[in-house]
Amino acid sequence: MDFDDDAPPELVDTTTNDAPEELRVKVPITIVTGYLGAGKTTLLNYILTAQHGKKIAVIMNAVDIEKSLTVNKGDEQVEEWLEVGNGCMCCSVKYDTTEPSGEVTNSLRDTGVNAIETLMEKKGAFDYILLETTGLADPGNLAPLFWVDDGLGSTIYLDGIVTLVDAKNILRSLDDPSGKVEGHEDHEDHDDHGPLMTTAHVQISHADVIVINKADMVSERELSLVRARIESINGLAKIHVTEQGVVPQLEGFLLDLHAYDQFNESEASAKGHSHLDPTISTVTIPVGRLRPGQLDDVDRWLRAVLWDAKLPAAEEANTFEIHRCKGRLVFDNGDVKILQGVREIFEINDAPVDVDQETPVEGKIVLIGKNVAGVDFERSFQQAVN
Ligand SMILES: Nc1nc2c(ncn2[C@@H]2O[C@H](COP(=O)(O)OP(=O)(O)OP(=O)(O)O)[C@@H](O)[C@H]2O)c(=O)[nH]1
User: Are residues 368 and 255 in the same domain?
Assistant: First the structure.
């Protein structure tokens, strides 16, 4: 091989789309959500102070046309403004993201992703981006914007959704009719019937991490009631109990979550049989070893459940609505695949290779959603995948 020792190394900016795919550094984006006053600002300030030497962009929510942006450079915090085309990012997301089919429109996805990429071109790349939503935002509308196909070559990736709840008020919020969420577009007809679904429910059901904050305001007993109710809604999320949002360390707790590219052992043991909450719960479907040819059956079953909100051979219409799904599929040829889904959007990809881990014996699919208790997903899956 020719090797010219004198030639200077070529410098490549690995944070832009001009960089070769294999060199491109992707910046994680974490969505931080939570009911009004749960402690989002406190948590974001804590992250900015607790991390050292990293450059973090916090896109604070604002209801006007610009979004406040804090860029942390060492000890110095600089306020900037981010223009997001047609107004507040969360509002445009809330009303415009989904076509009737449930597909996120490319133009809107581009708006969100481009706004952040432009920002990075102006300010240099960040190590992390934290996007704080309004207290009333439904993260299920926002997540697909940043969950971009690898093939599209984005410079950012969705790292996870962190939901803060206020230990003192969360149970009341979950039962408060004034917090009712308006219908998700394609299931509107179900919304006036059945149990109450509040903003607090959707913020918990979509979360990868749930921070139960203001633990100092409740007794041990109140705290365990809160925890049990939250776990019954979302059996997948990691739960941290905090005061002032303080966690033992940031990585793996609030940052570097990799919630959309992994399925770990704690997720594999997700609890899914308590239905303490009348509206949303978690169900787990054991999935035996599959033949490679059965992947199409799994895909077809998921499309019926996630897109049509129906069990394939069901005689009667169902009233469930899946918010988050996650799973691991194990094949008899040794392949392992990971399922990830938010509302109607889902992906099945090869699991990252982990040389230290033995191939799991069997797989599992976990569904979190409204009215899932009592639906026999397991039998339906077994009938469809055989
Ligand atoms: N007792 C107690 N108070 C807290 C804790 N965390 C935050 N607070 C206080 O709760 C209030 C609300 O906290 P914020 O961080 O502003 O909450 P937020 O979610 O950003 O609020 P909005 O922007 O209104 O949605 C503030 O007065 C905080 O000082 C905690 O762990 N314990």
Answer: no
